[in-house]
From TrEMBL:
Chain residue ranges for the region called Disordered: 307-337
Protein name: Nucleotide exchange factor Fes1 domain-containing protein
PANTHER family (UniProt xref): ARMADILLO-TYPE FOLD PROTEIN-RELATED, ATAXIN-10 DOMAIN-CONTAINING PROTEIN
Database matches in SUPFAM superfamilies: ARM repeat
Amino acid sequence: MEDHQPKQGSPRVLQVLEALKQASHELQTHPSPDSADSNSSAINALLELETESDNILSKDPHLSTLSQHLATLKNLVETLKTSKGHHSIRSFLTRCCSTHCLSRLAGSIESEIQAWIDRESLESLTRALKEPLHNEDELVKLLNQFEDRVLQGFNRELQDLILKSKVFTLLESVLCDSHCSKRVRERSAFAIAALINFNKDVFVGQVLMGRTIKALLTMASPNAIRVLCTLIRLIKSPLVDEIEFNGEIPKIISFLNREDLEMRVMAMVCILEIGYFGRKEAIDAMLEEGVIKKLVELQRSELGGDLTEMGLDEDDKENREVAGGGGGIKEKNTRSENRENRFFENHPFSSCVARFAVQLEVGEGLRQRERRAFKQQILTRVREASISDAEAATIIAEVLWGSSP
């Protein structure tokens, strides 16, 4: 069994490196002479840590470049002091900042430190993913840290480390492992979504060709569907094509029947995302599976309704009649938005048929003639699913008013 404990001395090394990183960051963010006091504190911290860290950093070959940078910093300070006489740190910082040498060196120090932290974190994560049942709490912690790191934005060095570690394959393996807890599998799914956001060009293919989508739908939890919605927004039509090709549309529609309210809400959100990005085949599959009938039923429920039920108080009615007065109009709009948000919180399925129709109308997956044809199909299916002419008239009016002609 592989050892999941940190390398000997790693906590101390990490503590020293974090202090170095903070000091170097301060030197970059306050490079001007006006910030000399702040920089003096940072430069002193770096010089003190250079002496303390000599034995610690020299034990790790990956930190050799960092040790060289710190030695260069120390030599630069000494050289400038001796060549210019006994000047203050403030004077030294003012001269160095004018040539940007201090800022560049601090940037190099921070980059080296971050690279070491990334390397150590990925090694710890990959070890834990290979034995996901060993320490669940530690694995969840590492997954959260990894997700936070990649969501900071693209970094080529980090991407190289991720590819070499094959962490995507390990994440997908854990996601598909029914023996792992739901918490671990969900955190692995969020990490996969973060990787797609990190660099779609590199990782999208692995999602489309792998088992991620099937695993999310098999797990069938609100968080799993939440991740699926994120992936649809990131990958768009190609992912919806894959979902439809694999015959997963009926399963997504069936989630609208779940007793768990959060699951039903996430299923509706997923359907709206598919409506926006889906091509003709995906929309056909949803309509054939009876999505309009199910949405009509949800809109009819206590958690449904239509937006006309929000109502207006007297102040809002008066404000609506005001033709000028920008402040009053802004205040009115804020109140209306707040009321609408509260209404949707209490009635998540309100106007859901019209919301679905609008997604098709303004989305990216359909041609104009396909949009027109689907609108007519929606209207026909609304009439078939309604229990009264009044209900049909209300929903049809929302569909017609909510989308363009």
